[in-house]
Amino acid sequence: xxxxxxxxxxxxxxxxxxxxxxxxxxxxxxxxxxxxxxxxxxxxxxxxxxxxxxxxxxxxxxxxxxxxxxxxxxxxxxxxxxxxxxxxxxxxxxxxxxxxxxxxxxxxxxxxxxxxxxxxxxxxxxxxxxxxxxxxxxxxxxxxxxxxxxxxxxxxxxxxxxxxxxxxxxxxxxxxxxxxxxxxxxxxxxxxxxxxxxxxxxxxxxxxxxxxxxxxxxxxxxxxxxxxxxxxxxxxxxxxxxxxxxxxxxxxxxxxxxxxxxxxxxxxxxxxxxxxxxxxxxxxxxxxxxxxxxxxxxxxxxxxxxxxxxxxxxxxxxxxxxxxxxxxxxxxxxxxxxxxxxxxxxxxxxxxxxxxxxxxxxxxxxxxxxxxxxxxxxxxxxxxxxxxxxxxxxxxxxxxxxxxxxxxxxxxxxxxxxxxxxxxxxxxxxxxxxxxxxxxxxxxxxxxxxxxxxxxxxxxxxxxxxxxxxxxxxxxxxxxxxxxxxxxxxxxxxxxxxxxxxxxxxxxxxxxxxxxxxxxxxxxxxxxxxxxxxxxxxxxxxxxxxxxxxxxxxxxxxxxxxxxxxxxxxxxxxxxxxxxxxxxxxxxxxxxxxxxxxxxxxxxxxxxxxxxxxxxxxxxxxxxxxxxxxxxxxxxxxxxxxxxxxxxxxxxxxxxxxxxxxxxxxxxxxxxxxxxxxxxxxxxxxxxxxxxxxxxxxxxxxxxxxxxxxxxxxxxxxxxxxxxxxxxx
Length: 729
Known about the structure:
With about 725 residues, this protein is α+β, with helices and mostly antiparallel strands.
């Protein structure tokens, strides 16, 4: 049993694999948080609550001066009833007041995990995998009822939370704030970790000590964004990759979000995460419901690495879906950096022919194949083939590539529209806009209003018609600007601040219908690279283009940071030409290959321009990756050396049965007269021996982990080395 309820003291003890989460319903119906951490046996933890009269902490009951919500650790706090800290939710009544008071009404303990209507979420394949607690809270004055849902996984140190709002009253309510969870810690001895950056340098690790006040990350861009990821972690001050406690919080959502930690006057820490309250309201009419996105909470007692591996396996097996969830991903060639918009059928065919000769399995035709798209200022929304570039149509070029023995993939940007397009001329009101205001453009394009059903229906039909026209097996789904002038012509004035969330709901509906209609297609999401790398999108598309920056050195940081939460099987990683198009750096083909082979491997350059020597290297890389991709994409991932802490990086992959491992080491800048170094490995079985492939050298697992490998002398900047081990016969 994963959820234990003690009726005598009204304590709920939620038990995941090695984790306990404990809460209690107090006498007056308040729901208090007692504990979250390493699994404990006892459920009798009510003694953890301490009550004391505090100056300037008011009391909801004047005759009990020891009780103040300002000091009570709570599960879903409100503002205005003696708690001055950040609330989890806030509603506004028709009389303008914003006071509410949720109290416990009832609860249910369910086998399994109910689905969230209209929203992505982690899932189960058998009821035995999880149990769910549903706490029903009620505000008797307004008729607001709220269900707090907690799901605990039997085989993961993971707990998911979400909230359902229901208006059981007679008057409409306005939701001003609806976060997906809140949890109170009884101390503040933590560091705050976030994944931050910008276009071309996404998800860099930032870590700093908590201090009094609020620390937060958020997006107001309409998407989860390049700038901040919907993830934070609290780490004990001494926690590192392998030791110490780590608490992770990841929102399964692709729009505006807020994630924050607030340290109060008594060094208690409140963590909350959910839809960003900024520029958000939701009118909840009588009888209506509002569902918040899911948050995935992960606890680790053995450092950041164990937290990451929990997220990796959970997301790889119980968030990503479809035929490609458990299938190795094909090696691809994308023509974007090879040609940009300047190509025709003959050029595409020549690149595909070169790719086939090198063993590449999938050709991806990127931007520029549709409408009159010879530059980035036109034709988005006109999803019909450009007959100047492909006189015989899309079916002809797909057939030619298929006849070579390769699969064919296609680029789309369905959420966008160009002002110079047939679609815009027919439906100028279909873009997000505000009356009497000009529409801002980004990359010369506008954003379609996905809060409108007719717009979503049109996108589904246009994309489906193309995908049905030829045997296409891969789609790159791009989104190259953030949302401005967020307004909808179809919503009344009082609902305009619902537009951003309705956009996300519309996007999810589109992705759900298209991916279900074409289950044989591998969908890869993209938003200027990694601008929408979040678990919400991964539910529909099992991999994401990690960054538009394909420079090998930059990718060390990007892929390392991304791995804090997201599995390697979700990361697209390609070899591109040098000098690199984003940072203009020259790195060797070997270095570029070793970095890209640490993800879903491919190429993004003009293969027809390679020298014979370079073609030989590429051919070997392709063959090598085919042999190791099962390990890279589905093995356990261990970070060994962080590029954020020095001049080198290293990581490794270990098969689930610990019989095979792949290790990659990268040296960024050469140093004169460098020291001799060893690299200690992780995740191996210390009791068995491993053979270094292509040699006769045998190492004990204990030797590799406790003593390490000698790192060879690497001459020059941007050097790398890869070792592969298999269990010795």
